[in-house]
Amino acid sequence: MSKPKVSFYWCASCGGCEEAVVDLAEGILPVVEAVDIVFWPVALDFKRQDVEAMADSEITVSFINGAVRSSEQFEMAELLRKKSKLVIAFGSCAQLGGIPGLANLFDLQAVLSQSYLEAPSVTNAEKIIPGVETKVPEGILTLPALWDTVKTLDQVIDVDYYLPGCPPPVQVIVDAVTAILQGKLPAKGTVLAPDIALCEDCRRKQTKPEKLGIKEFKRPHEMLIDQEKCLLAQGLLCLGPATRKGCGSVCIDGNMPCTGCMGPISRVTDFGAKALSAVASLVDSEDEKEIAAILDHVVDPAGTFYRYSLPASLLHRRYQPTARGGIA
Ligand code: SF4
Ligand code: SF4
Fold first, then answer.
1. In this predicted structure, what is the pLDDT of residue 328?
2. What's the confidence (pLDDT) of residue 321?
3. Which ligand is nearest the CA of 225, by number?
4. Whether the CB of 231 sits within 6 Å of ligand 1
5. For residues 183 and 186, what is the distance between their CA atoms, to the nearest angstrom?
6. Is residue 310 in contact with ligand 1, taking CB distance under 6 Å?
7. Is the pLDDT score of 46 beyond 50?
8. Ligand 1 site-directed mutation target among 196, 200, 205, most atoms within 8 Å of CB
9. Which of 13, 152, 97, 102 is nearest to 303 (CA)?
10. Which element (helix H / strand E) includes 147?
11. Phi and psi for 3 in degrees, rounded to 5?
């Protein structure tokens, strides 16, 4: 009997999701034994033409990580969708837009200008910004077109399941692969991780008061953090109340607040709005000025509450009027 065929692909992401697969360590051996990996550009020398030559739905499952923000990523996502029975959005960038999705706070011109002209580490005397076509003596060089707006995978192709996390925790990957191999998958569209808030899984939850009031938000480097007490109760912005469990509370165990990489539970539509509302409800004041002063300590609210989820949010991106008068 032929083995299930599996592919991995990498769109706009840091590469950590690919490392999470390798993090399976010796656990990867039974997986490799049970499947045929037919496409994995980061690790094996397969080409796009190899995928194009396959029959439609020939691949059992494609794990695609990263947000989609270029013509090439879109073409590859569409190609793998066509050639795969199942497509899994692998990691928070594919599921929610992830950190690359914060580019939706700016337009493309501002992103390119910052990256190629303004960043302190840049040396670019000729002020060259890469474009789709570049003339050189030998002819014309082409690059994929970069999009103005970063999208989640399910905003460009049909997605069957989601593996959350930045990167997805090893156990979540193992459980998903086992469910696929055994044909025991839940309903299409399910996020393959426990549908419970992280606080429920946290060893510090007993120290989280029933009624919590916060007078001052602090950042981790501004204080000595108690290793046992609930981080939110210490005034740190821990997003555990709004975040899905499944990571084993690794940040909390490292004495750092949760930043929300596992995304929301199924009853939440907009992670950032939910996290913002959970935190705002803890502000211990009825005085407008004092409330404003307390919230002033939340540095970079968009980057804090929408760190992994701006493209998937109801806002999707910041309004940017274009030269044509539309929205970028
Ligand atoms: S807020 Fe954070 S530290 Fe407190 S119980 Fe929830 S996950 Fe744990
Ligand atoms: S504690 Fe929060 S940020 Fe850290 S891995 Fe878990 S879900 Fe992600």
1. 47
2. 62
3. 1
4. yes
5. 9
6. no
7. yes
8. 205
9. 102
10. strand 146-151
11. -80, 155
